Amino acid sequence: RKKKKNWSLPSINLTLDQWLDILGFVLLGIALFTLLSFLSANQGVITGEWLRLLRQGFGWGAYLTPLFLGGVGLWLVLRDFGDKLPHVTPLQVVGLALGYLNFLVTAHLIAALVMFEGDLRTAFEAAAQAGHGGGHLGLLLGRWLLQGLGVGGLIVVLITWCFIVIACLFGVTVRDVETIVRHLWSQLRAAPTRPLPKVTGLAPPVDQTRMPRRAESASAEQIPVHTPASNASGAPSAQATRAEQKQTLLIGDDQVWQVPAYEEILNPGNGQDVSAEILREQARLLEITLESLGAPARVREINHGPVVTQFAIEPLVLTFPSGKETKVKVSRIKSLADDLALALEAKTLRIEAPIPGKQLIGVEIPNPEISLVALRDVMESKKFAAVKSPLRLGLGQDVSGHPFVTDLTAMPHLLIAGTTGSGKSVCINSIIAALLLQKTPNELKFLMVDPKRVELTGYSGIPHLLSKVVVDMERVTSALKWVLREMDGRYRKFSEARATHIRDYNERVAPKMGEKRLPYIVVVIDELADLMMMAPQETERSLCRIAQMARATGIHLVVATQRPSVDVVTGLIKANFPARIAFNVASSIDSRVILDLPGAEQLLGQGDMLFLPPDAPTPMRLQGAFVSNEELRRLVHFWKEQGKPEGISSARPVQRPLWADLQDKEQEIEYEDALLPDVIDLVLKEQRASISLFQRKLRIGYTRSARIMDILEENGVVGPQPPGGKAREVFPEAARRLLDPQSQDVQNFEYEDELMPDVIDLILRKEEASISLFQRTFHIGYTRGARIMDVLEENDVVGPQPPGGQTRDIRPKIARSIQALLSRNPGAG
């Protein structure tokens, strides 16, 4: 017997997204069908019955059916078409449904009162039968509310219902409604009666009172009005500046130096006027925005600066539905920086929380137009004249428009970082110009390092320079070594004269002993990254030692870089440069490297800076003083007309291989590498020479290896490079001649310490050299031991200090040559 087959409907396996798409298209079809039915004059049986059901059920709300169904269907179909589609929350869906029901009840009440006569309940039913008002659905809801509350209660419920719908659809709170109503009411009132915040930095000053505060009485106390910057510390002090500008100092018997007058060299700035009403409108908008974001605050001060305007706000108290009150947290306001920038249409926005010394939070918004801060305006201010310091600097103006003056001797070294075009080079020029406008060559000397050859070369020829602007990277390390020797020489002078620092020596000791005053020395390095790439260990060691010890001797560093990464601004360098300036940088990581906190990546460029003083925990925002190229040319020409550079007069004789260019010699001195003896030993041992061999054995770079190869070829140690990649020919006799004990370098060995012969003997006996070894053996201090080690390193007896605390390399051949020289001539030092 055959089995009966069980027939079943095929299963439909559709995903949720597919079902939603189908529902969306169905709703769109119903909406289009309903809309065409309303617009058509000739209606069929189905069309007419459909419209009759809509009118009976929803009354006047039937005409909203195509819009409602079409909107829902369109949203379902296009829900995955990108971010441009508005996001609908469940609360908004509930609000839309409640709003439609409120419309039906309200429309039914209006239709019953206007279109029908008699009892209200009878009019309700007649309106539903006629398809008016809210239809049967409006009748059902309205009759239930009318029986329970009456007409008055029904109206109150409908009004409350409207506020609930608005809150659900737009997320508006009662506090927001209150703020909007207060704002509209304040606009209707007369402008003079509107309490205004304080505005500083404007001309003319406006009489302002304190803004109203929540939970404050109507008779709030008035905020004290501060004097604007244009009428206070920014005003020029004519008598003080003229007295300083006409000061002349005598050098020797016939040379008289005169500092230039500010007005002859520098140009004044062009401050931009701003409308106080615009700033007040921004303050109102800031308050409304904070209120709408759930962080109410009031603007208490408006500080208008050259680049940004700082709105000083005070957080208010939040009241919760439970009655609990709490003040808005500072972190809450700081997290709203992006929202505030969007509302205020600002390119970037910085929040300083809190403002140092105040119970306020600073919101800094860029100005539409940047005001030029001229160096002349800063140097002619009363604040600049009030600072009595040998190396005072006018860096620019703060966010309030006040001149900002600092002291290089108090820093005592300055580290500057910023990307190209941020204002770093202009800042360096303004620092140099400010010092040249105050100090004569006998009071101040410059040592300038400019690897890029474009920033500082314009100062060549002024009498303040110790030597030409250093542009060759090979000479930078030697220049820093000379600075170290000069520092040690000055400390010896101070020790002999029992002076504590340079000012004590110049004011008390030098006049009594009949000696010249020691000038201050400012070392300006325009690009630190190039130095760290060439000789990182020597550069870091020299800079750190100068930064640690040179303050009392009057030697100060101004170091700049456009790449503030951790391999350039190392931890040791940053620790010894407590004063730092950050211009606009590429990222918050670079900002943390230079300032130890983010913020520099939000600066505007063109001189906008964050200055971190050595005695402040947080940086302050400044607009740097501007100096044009024409002003610099006038300044350089003024000093060139008075005299030429006189060269360096170091505290002790300078011998090779130290920085020969500092002696202003015209002849070129051949540069000799400290590893040359080791290279010659390697060549004699291997009987071959190549750049790759030097790199592997001596662990040096290609550039240094190639330079050593050039020296060997010029001195006949190796032959020229043959074609085909063959090895160079080696000449052992020429190599041995370079290591001859009677060479000129050994004959010119100079030293000052009487222990030097014993030190050489100790090194050859122990086959090691360290400062601690010298201290233990000869019972001397650290400073004397370090000075002996420097002389040994400069004369290639020992190698440089390797990283990780390892011992130095010893060059026994050179040590024996010096020992033989000293035995023949004990007075060689």
Distance between the ends: 130 Å
Can you tell me the overall shape? elongated
CATH T-level topology of the domain at 405-640: Rossmann fold
Average of per-residue pLDDT values = 78
What is the CA-atom radius of gyration, in angstroms? 41 Å
Low-confidence spans = 190-236, 238-254, 647-671, 741-747
Structural class: alpha/beta
CATH class bucket of the domain at 405-640:
Alpha Beta
| Count of runs of 4 or more consecutive helical residues | 31
Strand percentage, roughly? 5-15%
Approximately how much helix is present in the residues? 40-55%
What strand line-up does the widest sheet have? 11-10-18-17-16-12-15-14-13
Total beta strands:
18
CATH architecture of the domain at 405-640: 3-Layer(aba) Sandwich
Topology:
Elements: H1 16-39, H2 45-58, H3 65-77, H4 90-115, H5 120-129, H6 135-170, H7 174-188, E1 198-200, H8 238-245, E2 248-251, E3 255-258, H9 262-265, H10 276-292, E4 297-304, E5 308-315, E6 317-319, E7 325-327, H11 330-334, H12 337-344, E8 350-352, E9 361-366, H13 375-379, H14 382-386, E10 392-398, E11 403-407, E12 414-417, H15 424-436, E13 444-449, H16 473-497, H17 502-513, E14 520-525, H18 528-534, H19 536-549, E15 555-561, H20 571-575, E16 579-582, H21 588-595, E17 608-612, E18 620-624, H22 629-642, H23 676-686, H24 691-698, H25 702-714, H26 732-738, H27 744-747, H28 756-766, H29 771-778, H30 782-794, H31 812-824
Parallel strand pairs: 1-4, 12-15, 12-16, 13-14, 14-15
Antiparallel strand pairs: 2-3, 4-5, 5-9, 6-7, 8-9, 10-11, 10-18, 16-17, 17-18
